[in-house]
Amino acid sequence: MNFEKLIWSNYGKFILLLLSAVVIIQGYHMMWLMKIHNSRTAHSNRQYAQYEENISFQMSANLIKVMQHVVDTVTEVHISDQTGSYYIIPNVIVADVNASSLPISLCTQTTPNHLHYLKDLSESWDGPISVAVFTDHKNTIQTLHTALYMHQCFESIRKFVTFHLLYPIRLEPIEVSKLLSMEVDCNVDMADVFDGSETKLNYANEIPYPHNALRNVAITYSNSEYIFMIDIDMVPSEGLVNGFQKFIKRQSLASSDRSKDAEGKVVYVVPAFESKLPIRASNKISLLKEWGEGNVRPFYSMVCAKCQVVTDYDKWKNLPNIPFLDIGYILDWEDPWEPFYIAKKTDLPLYDGKFKQYGFNRISQVCEMYVAGYSFAVLNNAFIVHRGLKEKDKFHSKKEEENLKNKELFRAFKLNLKDKYPDITRQC
């Protein structure tokens, strides 16, 4: 009995010793695994840090290259506009994506203090944007620095937005080379870059604002087959680039039996709205909901309702709900309709650069399109929304004075159209 106890006692000690050995071995194994893991983690962290450093270096090198291109372009390239009043500097900052690879470019114009709208615009419009910026000798460096900040710090802008400059011939940019010593810091908040300049009005500056000359620059130096001219503080409905691309392919197949001339004499109207901030409507369903709740209304409805009423918003609202872009209905132009539209760039009449400040700048070009034989096809699902509601009491003090001046200019413009299009019976 004592012998059996001795055996079991020794066996128990052996088992305990064996278990202890296993625990020790497992402990060493875990320590070894942890050492390998820590080594790999440290190596991975070093690799990631090196990757970040390489990316930062690449971005810095690219920024220096872009800066030098900007300085060289502003110094060397000066093209006179059609009026002989301004110099154009095209492609001063060029988008990464080649615009000719997509069928449509959005074209717009602005002063430097409204360039911040490009962030939302470029994120809503998944395609090329050609923007013409108005500046002068004193503001050129700050304008370029702001554009460089937008280009460097926002991927959608760097990818799609190409900047052009327009400035009065008598106010040539000065000391542009100073731009090379200025820092572009993406850690700086966009609001600080613009420093409250949103309160300024384009029309209230000492230098008359040349809408039409700027629009011509944005159109002329866009590289897509179609252009979509809107104001910079507007936002297009989602998926419009892709939807229009598919629409044009269907139109091309359907019109194969028609002449090119007949096909080219149409523009595609995009209904315009205005909204209380912020803009929340991204598709027609959400737009109609916001419209029904009073957050959205037809553009200019409280300022110049007749300027947009021809669009027939009620008819557009009640079009059949189909999941693709198509023509809803076709309209003839009527005075004083000012539709926003998508058009083929080829043979499109440019804007008359003599119109500046407020009044008749956009309608003069639409009037000429009508006289030239264009029809106006309203798209069923596309729209644009202006940031904020337009109110009569929120315009600058000289609005009416400028409007009367441009009204006289418009009368002369219409008389000239009779000479320019002698064989066409349409009048506006």
Spell out the key features of this protein.
globular; single chain; 10-stranded mixed β-sheet; 43% helix; 428 residues; 2 domains; 4-stranded mixed β-sheet; alpha/beta
Tally the helices: what do you get?
A: 12
The helix/strand series, from N terminus to C terminus, equals HEEEHEHHEHHEEHHEEHEHEEHEEH
Structural class: alpha/beta
Strand order of the largest sheet: 1-2-5-4-3-6-12-8-13-11
Straight-line distance between termini: 125 Å
Strand content: 15-25%
What is the general shape? Answer: globular
* Unreliable stretches covering 5 or more consecutive residues: 40-58
Q: What value does the average pLDDT take? A: 84
Share of helix, binned: 40-55%
What is the count of distinct domains? 2
Largest sheet: 10 strands, mixed
Q: Give the total of beta strands.
A: 14
Radius of gyration: 31 Å
Task: Describe the SSE topology.
Elements: H1 2-76, E1 79-80, E2 86-93, E3 104-110, H2 117-124, E4 129-134, H3 140-153, H4 155-160, E5 161-168, H5 190-194, H6 211-220, E6 226-229, E7 234-236, H7 240-254, H8 260-264, E8 266-269, E9 272-275, H9 284-292, E10 296-298, H10 313-317, E11 327-331, E12 341-344, H11 361-371, E13 375-379, E14 384-387, H12 399-420
Parallel strand pairs: 3-4, 3-6, 4-5, 8-13, 9-14
Antiparallel strand pairs: 1-2, 2-5, 6-12, 7-14, 8-12, 9-10, 11-13
Helix pairs in contact: 11-12
Give an overview of the whole structure.
By secondary structure, the chain is of the alpha/beta class. The chain has 2 domains: 65-232, no CATH class; 235-428, no CATH class. Helices cover 43% and strands 16% of the residues. It contains 12 helices and 14 strands. It has a 10-stranded mixed sheet with strand order 1-2-5-4-3-6-12-8-13-11. A 4-stranded mixed sheet has the order 7-14-9-10. Helix 11 (361-371) packs parallel to helix 12. The longest helix has 75 residues, at 2-76. Mean pLDDT is 84; it is low at 40-58.
